[in-house]
Write a structure and sequence with these properties.
- The chain has 147 residues and is an alpha/beta fold.
- Helix content is 54%, strand content 15%.
- α1 crosses α2, α1 packs parallel to α3 and α3 packs antiparallel against α4.
- It starts with a strand and ends in a 7-residue tail after the last strand.
């Protein structure tokens, strides 16, 4: 089974049916079992928070409850592994010093480095330096979506 460290945006696009990356994110989630998704614990908090905001903005009743149900489903899924350890925190701190990008992104990249796997992001962000793509095996949903 292939493993991939996945950023929050992929899960948010899975929930947000209006996202231009929804279908690509849906393909990733539908392949759980063929893919092992590895997540730093900070990603679960982000998924819960951002999902709740999207659901509430869409007028979904009990948006936070639904977001919690989603992260509980992810957390307990046999093809999802949540990682939280000292080595990961230290590696994320090193990447934060080196690149100055969002700490949550540093955690996902650190996890991919420690696990020797690909990293999956929604899209290239302006604040993410180009050398990230040179130094990590990074994949972006935006590369699989025709505009």
């Amino acid at each position: 089974m292939s493993k991939v460290a996945v950023d929050t945006g992929v899960f948010v696009d899975y929930i947000n049916r209006r996202s231009p990356y929804h279908e690509a994110a849906k393909v990733v989630i539908s392949h759980l079992g063929q893919l092992e998704l590895i997540l730093p614990s900070i990603t679960l908090a982000e998924i819960c928070y951002v999902s709740a905001r999207i659901l509430m903005a869409a007028g979904v009743e009990n948006g936070m409850k639904k977001a919690i149900e989603f992260v509980e489903w992810l957390y307990s899924h046999p093809a999802v592994r949540v990682v939280d350890n000292l080595s990961l925190s230290i590696e994320a701190a090193k990447l934060k010093l080196q690149y100055g990008i969002a700490l949550a992104d540093c955690y996902v990249l650190a996890l991919s480095r420690l696990e020797g796997c690909k990293t999956l992001f929604r899209k290239r962000e302006r604040e993410m330096p180009e050398e990230i793509e040179k130094n990590f095996d990074v994949v972006f949903l935006e590369d699989y979506v025709s505009e």
